[in-house]
Amino acid sequence: MSSVGRPSLIFATASVCVAALCALGASAQDSKSAPLAKELVQSLDAAKLDSMAAADPATPGAFVAVLYIPGTQLLVVSAKYAAPQLLTDKITSKDYRDVYVDLQSASVRGSKVFVTDQGADGLAAKPSGDNAADSWDEGDKSVTFDGDWKKAKITEADYTKTFTDADERYAKILSMLLAQAKKAKAGS
Question: Of 142, 143, 147, 141, which Cα lies nearest the Cα of 124?
Fold first, then answer.
């Protein structure tokens, strides 16, 4: 190969690498859950609450709940519950933490989704700064969004699709919690 061809090859390789990094960065910036997580954290802080829970209006017998560790993380669970009236009563009496505990410990088998949102800032395809990686658990499947799809033994495309799907679902869960937080604030 001539010396003229080498710079072109290096430039082409560098361009591909930059494009791939930009795509991964763009997916993190386009997180649908990020603005909702920020708004939920602000609502919880303003109300001096460390938890929130709501019924899932789209799925009878299903609920969502969050445990908020200020400045650190959101621990979010979504699941069906065998005795929905018990959780509905707890939500009415603002026993949100009890709903969270019940969903974590006694949800209908196979219905639970659990999200660990490190930084309480929405899901990110890859952690930034000193943040630990976010994770998504559903059934027997667990995904850590650390940006290392090779370690997870999946393709980059599958990793990106898994992240996008999880982020969309997480945004829906956060929307339900945010609506309940606003409703609880209005009822105060």
Answer: 147
Residue 70 CA, chain-centre distance (Å), reads 16
Domain count, the chain: 1
> Are the CB atoms for 128 and 99 separated by under 8 Å?
no
96: in domain: yes
Q: How far apart are CA 163 and CA 27, in angstroms?
A: 9
**Per-residue confidence at 130, pLDDT binned at 50, 70, 90?**
confident
Q: Please indicate, yes or no, if residue 23 is contained in any of the structural domains.
A: no
- Which residues are CB-contacts of 121 (< 8 A; sequence separation ≥ 6)? 34, 37, 38, 41, 131
* Integer angstrom CA distances of residue 131 from 29, 107, 124: 15, 29, 10
151: which 2 tokens? Answer: 């370690």
pLDDT digits (tens, 9 = 90+) for 81-121: 999 999 999 999 999 999 999 999 999 999 999 999 999 99
Domain coverage including residue 40:
31-187
100 inside domain: yes
In a domain, 19, yes or no: no
